[in-house]
Amino acid sequence: MDEVEVVVAHHERATLRVGDVFLKVDADQTRTDVEVEAMAMAPIPTPEVLWRKPPVLALAALPGTALGRLGEPSTASSAAWAAAGAAARLLHDAPLPPWPGRSLDEIASHLDGECEWLVTNGVLPIDLVTHNRRVAEAALRPWTPAFTHADLQITHVFVDGDEITGVIDWSEAAPGDALYDLATLTLGHEEHLDDVLAGYGTDVDLDVIRAWWSLRSLVGVRWLVEHGFDPSAPGCEIDVLRARM
Q1: Cβ–Cβ under 8 Å, residues 191 and 86
Q2: Which residues are registered as beta bridge partners of 26?
Q3: Run means of pLDDT, 10 residues per run, the chain, 245 residues
Q4: In angstroms, rounded to a whole number, what is the distance separating the alpha carbons of residues 240 and 11?
Q5: 4 - beta bridge partners?
Q6: Cis peptide leading into 145, omega within 30 of 0?
């Protein structure tokens, strides 16, 4: 009998692996609705939906391994990183999902609230927060909406050799800023940004990508702490913020 592996678990959702099947349990069925519809729309490889019995979604495991992990060196080839960039470009060029994404005002308000929390609670030094808040300002500009994954972490991109075998965890997918996906993909792995952009195949504003690194890290610290993760681990969000100083 296959063992049950807990992939991730917190009070919002849990993912278990049993053999070649992933079981995703989510208290919010809206997120699961988005995930299933986004995977059906995406023009890049995604996991096969085996069955759905709310609150459980069963997905087939993807071949290959994750592109990497935050805080650890990636062993994936430059070609694999470029393939990830090319997959992102295919997604961003696809027709938009029919549901709304986050507005610029919502993102700015969330950022300001998280910065205030970080300073008020003494979680991070005020100069670190203030500097990165200024860096993040470059991301807060109008953009042409694209079909974004919106959580394109390297752990969500699977590769086999130099090829992309699939992308997982689509519950945040929505119209949004394409550069946010590229920044999320390269967060903590700045050394692979050139490879990703080579595969993406078009010029981008590097200041905006750096801004999204700061913004994503600033708004992520509290969530990570409250859900049992450590944003201060080497190479993770707090190190990303320090690197911008």
Answers
A1: no
A2: 13
A3: 81 89 93 97 97 96 93 95 98 98 97 98 97 98 97 95 96 97 97 97 96 98 93 95 93
A4: 26
A5: 18
A6: no
Q: CA-based angle 164:146:46, to the nearest 5? A: 30
Cα–Cα dist 165/46, whole Å: 8
The single-letter DSSP state of residue 117 is H
Report whether 221 contacts 109 (CB < 8 A). no
Q: At what angle do helices 206-226 and 178-186 cross, to 10 degrees?
A: 70
Using the structure block, give the residue that is written with the tokens 């929390």: 117
Helix, coil or strand: residue 89: helix
Q: Are 68 and 75 in contact (CB under 8 A)?
A: yes
141 token code pair:
């500009």
pTM of the model: 0.95
Quote the tokens at residue 140.
């807060």
Strands (E), the chain: 4-9, 13-18, 21-26, 49-53, 56-60, 65-66, 146-148, 157-160, 163-167, 174-176
Cβ contacts of residue 204 below 8 Å, gap of 6+? Answer: 179, 182, 197
- Which CATH number applies to 64-243? 3.90.1200.10
